[in-house]
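subagent[fold] <- orchestrator: predict structure for attached chain, return tokens only, no commentary.
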Amino acid sequence: PSNKPSKHPTGEPSSKPSKQPTSEPTDMPSSGPIPQPTEGPTNKATDSPSAGPMSSQPTEAPTHAPGMFCEHSSETSISHGGFTWDESYMGYDCLLKSDLNKNNILLVETNVSNITIDVTFMQSSNTTYQVSALMLRSSNDGGYDSSSWCMGEERFVCVAQVKKYSYVKLEFLECDSDDETEFDETDLVDFEQNAWYTQKMTANGQYLTCELYDSSGDLIQSIAANSTIYGSKLEELTSVAFGAYGKEYYFKDYNIVEYLSESSAKRGTKTDLP
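subagent[fold] -> orchestrator:
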């Protein structure tokens, strides 16, 4: 009775638990999980970012077509305020920049009363003022209101008036005799600083139009008038001008189309947006 109970329990429990756990758990963790984390993430992280974005994309993306104001053209002259040519801003070169915190007005040489001008401009985030303007059918005579866009001359003015740096409206002004008259305006629409806009104004016979386009070329605001609204035609006046009130407005290009009659275009001088 003393030999049987001592041999049977000691032989079987001691051999089975020691062999099975020792061989299987030791081989699997050492050969399986260790090579996979070191080979997988290391190759993928170094090949993809270094070959793609760093070598090609950042060098090609920021290029823009230059503006038309690399140097002062003989077709333009400063009427009031000040401008600097060949300025750079937001990756664009050959820009015209307004320099003074007052009316900065650039005259464009023309000799036709039926005419269209469009100007591509940007209100930078550095400016504290919010007004730009196009002027058609201007006189060279003094004696009129010199405290506004009239600047002592008879003329029609289309003003792009920005509010709170986020909204814009168009206004029509007439500088006639000794008075400035605002005779029409639009509602406010959304506006962004540091973005290109094109303002376009046409005087053709007794009709006036003014339009504003965003950087995609979409019309966002327009205004029209005829002599029954503004009263005086000023059809014999021919000078053309554009500008902005305050520093840090940028101009990329302008385009002039002269009409020998109410339907025929004569010339244009614009560089395209990129």
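orchestrator: received. Logging for downstream: Helices lie at 4-31, 35-51, 57-60, 227-230. Residues 4-31 form the longest helix (28 residues).
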